[in-house]
Amino acid sequence: MHLPEIQNHMDYLFKVALKKCGRFNEAEDLVQEVLLAALQYPKEIQDIKAWLLMVLNHKYYDMLRKKYKLPIISIDVLPEEAEPWEINEDEENTDASIVRREVAYLADKYRAVIVRHYFYGEKIQDIAKDLDIPKGTVLSRLSCGREQMRKGLNMTEAYEKQSYQPERLDIGCSGTPGLNSEPWSVVEDDLLKQNILITAYKEPLTVVEIARSLGIPTAYVENAVNDLVSAELMSSLGNKYFTDFEITSPEKMLEKLDTEIAFIDGHYEEISDIVKEYNKEIANTDVLSALSDEKAEKLKYYFTLHLFSSAAHMAMKNLLSSDTEEYPDRPNGGKWIAYGAKYPLDFDFSKYRASKYFYGGMREALFKDFLGAKSINLKVYDSQPQLNKYQRGPVYMDDEDLAKLLYIISRGIPFEATGFETMFLEDIPHLIKCGVLKDNSTVNIPMITPDEYKALDKIRAAHTKDFADKLGALIKPILPKLRLDIPKHLEKRIGEIRKYHTGFFAMAFVRKSIERRDFDLKSSLPPMVFVVDDNNNIR
Q: 222 and 261: one domain?
């Protein structure tokens, strides 16, 4: 592996390392270890960034284990007779290593009194006074801690897969993310938190059980679990914790994909007739006649998915007799419901058949009173192919920054007069390549007014019920095949509609339409529309 290739990712790795370690010097040491491992690696690597991140996480776990070196002790000493335990740092002593492990696995309330009493020789009455608990409670915790250590010494370690082969957990959400992009920012680039969520999904577990499954000292797991509970990604049941949203896997998604593709193949003509009639009505509006053919086709793509999304949701709601699930208020200003998908760290999405059909809901980037405009609103549907490729230029650009850039370019406003971050100008060649821009000064996605959007959406709403009724009748026989595997303890916590997968229907139909040449889609862009209110007719 060549040094320049590695150095391109050093800033990113240091950012991740600092987030994990919390200390500058530890983060530097961790990155140096990754660099050394990379320089010594003899093989070619396709995705260098992913490989470096994997190595960093492995090195981080090694650091945690080394950091938690504890003294060798005898757990059979009675609390009343305790003297400070002699520290023995002989790493070749297997017994010492095992006892260190068992102390590290203790829950905080037991670990704290064990360490203070036996390691530092603190008297029981002093510990009780300092912790503001009765002397009997200290004695009880010492006894319970020693008993748990005995059990640990006598048990065979049974690490879960996550301890030696961690997976990546991608988290999405329906609703409005928090101010710092919660919920995904809570676990972004944090394999420990991701694998805690995976481990505690099938059944509630104590913190110690999670720690043992992962082979990570309990102290680190406790902090991570507390963060996940605070972020409302985990909940508790007594002293046990569980992941509070559904998680799918690539294998399960392929099962749903085959069901939904077969559905579209079997009912394409019936569904296509409805969509064609709908698109014909949209095409005859003044809005589309004022657009270029390319932009008109992109707008039809957007509203086709908009129709499919709303109709499929209504169909499932009617079939399941389910009320619309409310998005709860979340910490840091969000209103969302999370969902997750787990993948191996080396998962190759380019070879994953389902990746061409991924489809999510519509997102918006809305600004009021922006550079003379009453409002600008970029509406984007998550869809394949080339999911959000437009965001992956030289500089990462989110929807909010893209909306601002598009408005500045479309209105010919000098950048120096906007206060807009000029680094995003580096993305312009990439945006041209993706089809968002035609050239340095021309926006290549549909730009319409709020009134025009309302007129088109009124047509969409008028077709939704009939389409939903038709879809519902066709979907009903395959409903059991669409149900996800939900753990029993989550059955009452997850909304009825969320227990069923319908996310491939829309893109399966679009791809079938393109294949049949019923849909003349020349762009691979995710469907988007820019709604601008500034009393300006420039499109």
A: no
> For residue range 422-471, what is the model confidence (pLDDT) as tens digits?
888 999 999 998 889 999 999 999 999 999 999 999 999 999 999 999 99
Domain span at 20? 3-67
Burial class (CB within 10 angstroms; exposed 0-12, middle 13-18, buried 19+) of 515: exposed
Tell me how many domains the chain contains.
4
150, 288: one domain = no
Residue at a domain's end among 244, 264, 290:
244
Structure tokens at 366: 């809305």
- With a pLDDT cut of 70, the percent of the chain lying above it is 86
Q: Are 372 and 410 in contact (CB under 8 A)?
A: no
Which domain CATH number covers 62?
1.10.1740
Position 494 in a domain: yes
Identify which has the larger pLDDT, 367 or 107. 367
pTM, 2 dp:
0.70
Instruction: Please report the pLDDT score of residue 395 as a whole number.
Output: 85
**Distance (Å, rounded) from C-alpha 255 to C-alpha 248?**
11
Q: How many helices (H) and strands (E) does the chain have?
A: 21, 11
Co-location of 50 and 100 in the same domain: no
Burial (0-12, 13-18, 19+ Cβ within 10 Å), 42? exposed
Phi, psi of 133 (to 5 degrees): -135, 155
Contacts of 49 (CB under 8 A, 6+ apart): 9, 12
d(CA 328, CA 108): 31
Q: Residue 486: CB partners within 8 Å, gap ≥ 6?
A: 246, 494, 499
